[in-house]
Design a protein that fits this description.
This protein has 20 helices and two strands. With about 475 residues, it is mainly alpha-helical. The longest helix is centred in the first third of the chain and has 39 residues.
Length: about 475
């Protein structure tokens, strides 16, 4: 019932809109043409990117709500008269670029004097015509020098190329040295030494073949972990003086080469520990690689927790040595791991204290950089913990009671240096604590080995009886 009125209403509205558009169209056309004309005539009045505040520069000024650019005024070009004596005297004082060239002949007095003013009295034509020509010819003869062309010698070119960064091509003869630095051979030697100490401290008969196999597998696992660590830290090591000469940073080998070397060490190392020693030792070796590469390495740029994770990584090798000898995790293995865990804090905190600038440039969050007070407290606390763990060793039947007594002087000395480092906090005290930790650990392990409590034979373990044997 509403169809016809609605259609009429719609048609009426459409007609009115059409009439309005027809009326407005000429005015819109004129407006568009006027805008185009204004843009072509004066485009500086239009909105440009320079009217945004964050894009303004010092050469942009705004006057009377309009934006203008103020060009830097050029210097006025001054035409120097060749007969001006003052200019010629300054040129004569400039030293020659090439010392072998003859020096500039000083100008004669008739040329170096200043030009006379225009209102001076005129001279005869014969004098005025010949004097300027003579002075100009004399000036050309004395000031024109051959262009200095620098010819680079072979030695200078080689020195310039040596100063530039470039990837170094390693020779096959130097490949062993590159592998040694990629594996951090000194750190790997320390890891193998602690693993060997754990094997030797186990209360079982010594097996030299198993000892060699376990040491080899532990060393290969350490080489793999250190290589992957350097692969991840190339952009950060390049900012540190301590690590800027590493093989990957200098480009001596490619990243693919480094990763291949890591897998070539890691897979045989873990396989050797698992198959030739025991699965527990192989699991500990794989766990240590994972903790060092996937936990400790990224945490160095995130949190100071990385120091505690790194201490756990360093405490695992003696546990691996003990498990390689016994096939189990006894309290003695945990005790040796605890000794290594506590020792690493005074060792590393003292080392990082004198490398704070380097770690800051590399972007590493170390206690010495972000929490210097905690760095000193933790070093002192764990130095005292070495005394407590040494006292606990005979209680766990790992050593005799002689060990706490003979190890007390070395433990007290490192604790004294840690207390001195805690109170002073200077480079000298940190350096002394670091160098003490280098000989403290071998000395402590050697003393523990001399006081080792060996296992008793089956006959020795039989209980004593007072009953006489039957006849």
């Amino acid at each position: 019932m509403y169809k016809a009125p609605c259609s009429r209403l719609t048609g009426f509205l459409g007609l009115r809109v059409k009439q309005k558009l027809v009326q407005i169209a000429p005015r819109c056309d004129r407006t568009a043409r006027s805008l185009i004309y204004l843009h072509r005539r004066d485009p500086s009045n239009w909105l440009t990117y320079q009217q945004l505040n964050f894009l303004k520069r010092q050469y942009v000024t705004k006057n009377s709500s309009e934006l203008h650019q103020r060009a830097i005024p050029k210097r006025d070009l001054t035409i120097v008269d060749e007969r001006d004596g003052s200019i010629e005297r300054r040129v004569g004082r400039i030293p020659a670029i090439n010392p072998e060239l003859p020096e500039v002949v000083p100008l004669s007095e008739d040329v170096t004097h200043k030009a006379r003013p225009k209102n001076s009295t005129t001279k005869p034509a014969s004098q005025t015509g010949t004097a300027p020509k003579a002075s100009v010819s004399h000036l050309a003869a004395t000031t024109v020098e051959p262009p200095h062309v620098y010819v680079e010698t072979e030695e200078a070119r080689q020195a310039r190329l040596d100063r530039q960064w470039k990837p170094l091509k390693v020779d096959v003869a130097d490949l062993l040295d590159v592998y040694a630095r990629l594996a951090k051979i000194k750190l790997t030697a320390l890891v193998v030494t602690t693993a060997a100490a754990g094997f030797a401290m186990a209360p079982v008969p010594f097996d030299p073949i198993m000892f060699f196999v376990s040491a080899l597998g532990t060393g290969l696992a350490s080489c793999a972990a250190n290589s992957i660590n350097q692969y991840f830290e190339v952009p950060f090591d390049s900012n540190m003086n301590r690590t800027k000469n590493r093989p990957l940073v200098r480009g001596q080998i490619s990243p693919l080469h480094a990763v291949s070397f890591a897998f070539a060490c890691g897979i045989p190392g873990v396989a050797l520990l698992t198959l030739a020693v025991n699965p527990l030792t192989g699991f500990l070796g794989a766990l240590n690689i994972f903790l060092y590469t996937c936990c400790y390495t990224p945490l160095k740029r995130l949190s100071i927790v990385n120091t505690w994770v790194g201490a756990v990584v360093g405490a695992i090798p003696p546990v691996m040595g003990w498990s390689a000898a016994t096939g189990s995790l006894d309290p003695g293995a945990l005790l040796l791991g605890g000794l290594l865990y506590c020792w690493q804090f005074p060792h590393f905190n003292a080392l990082s204290w004198n490398l704070r600038e380097d770690y800051s440039r590399g972007g590493y969050r170390m206690m010495s950089v972000t929490h210097p007070g905690m760095c000193k407290r933790v070093a002192l606390r764990h130095s005292l913990g070495l005394i407590a763990l040494s006292t606990l060793a005979p209680a766990l039947d790992v050593t005799t009671w002689t060990f706490p007594v003979i190890s007390l002087p070395v433990n007290l000395y490192i604790s004294y240096l840690a207390a001195r480092f805690y109170h002073k906090g200077d480079r000298d005290s940190a350096r002394k604590l670091f160098f003490c930790s280098l000989w403290h650990l071998p000395m402590l392990l050697l003393l523990a080995l001399t006081c080792k409590k060996y296992s008793r034979s089956q006959g020795d373990t039989a209980p004593l009886t007072l009953t006489p044997p039957a006849s």
